[in-house]
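Need a sequence for this fold. Nothing fancy.
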């Protein structure tokens, strides 16, 4: 399908303000249903099995009530950017839902590695040798190791997280040796103004070279293109939860 003919609901501005229950829970359930339908459609159009693609609902900056609304609507996999925010939000939710899976998707400081390893089911943002060292030490200390993805800065943008393209092969190889099967795949965030297809294809080719099966790519604006290019995880935030409130509101009650 031509990406240009995909009809997308508005996901920003006033059109994205929840119209459902006062707490937005109806809206979240409706939007989740709509996103899942679009994901299935994109997979079918790409002759893929819709079951190969998992939705990671990115709940960063949104309150626990929003996560609960999504959980009630059958969503189990969530993405958070900040370890501190995830640590405040998720342990009580996990107590109520043993199926819950938390992916950490934001740039990770080495001094947060231990908390990250304790909290996460998957860390999608492994992007440098020093972080691999820190995660390895944390895993020894905690006696558990989450699944890992290497984040590749496919656009080589200086301000972005992710390993630069020319260092990616070496980091992937080193992580493979060190973490074995726990290194599951690759993640990328294409530059805002590029055609995302080129970046998705690049990531898929790298994963193929290294025999990795998980590809985390695609967000609210481009998850259908990502599915067309082989995504197995799509990270969708604002199209489910609405525009993000200021970061502080999720951190300070
Ligand atoms: C915030 C975020 C997303 C979700 O972005 P939306 O455009 O709101 O869907 C996905 N991936 C990462 C790494 C993010 O930080």
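Here you go.
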């Amino acid at each position: 399908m031509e990406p240009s003919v995909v009809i997308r609901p508005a996901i920003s501005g006033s059109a994205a303000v929840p119209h459902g229950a006062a707490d937005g829970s109806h809206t979240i359930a409706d939007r989740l249903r709509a996103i899942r339908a679009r994901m299935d459609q994109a997979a079918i159009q790409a002759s893929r099995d819709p079951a190969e693609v998992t939705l990671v609902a990115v709940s960063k900056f949104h309150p626990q009530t929003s996560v609960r609304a999504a959980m009630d609507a059958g969503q189990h996999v969530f993405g958070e950017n900040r370890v501190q925010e995830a640590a405040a939000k998720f342990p009580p939710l996990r107590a109520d839902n043993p199926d819950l899976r938390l992916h950490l998707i934001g740039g990770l400081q080495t001094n947060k590695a231990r908390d990250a390893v304790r909290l996460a089911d998957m860390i999608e943002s492994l992007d440098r040798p020093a972080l691999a060292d820190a995660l390895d030490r944390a895993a020894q200390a905690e006696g558990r190791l989450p699944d890992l993805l290497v984040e590749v800065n496919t656009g080589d943008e200086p301000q972005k997280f992710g390993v630069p393209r020319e260092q990616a092969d070496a980091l992937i190889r080193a992580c493979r040796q060190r973490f074995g099967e726990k290194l599951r795949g690759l993640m990328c965030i294409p530059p805002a103004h590029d055609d995302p297809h080129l970046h998705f294809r690049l990531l898929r080719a790298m994963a193929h070279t290294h025999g990795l099966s998980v590809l985390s790519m695609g967000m609210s604006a481009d998850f259908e293109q990502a599915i067309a290019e082989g995504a197995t995880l799509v990270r969708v935030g604002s199209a489910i939860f609405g525009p993000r409130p200021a970061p502080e509101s999720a951190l300070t009650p």
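For context: Residues 58, 60, 81, 105-106, 189, 219-221, 235-239 surround pyridoxal-5'-phosphate (CB under 6 Å).
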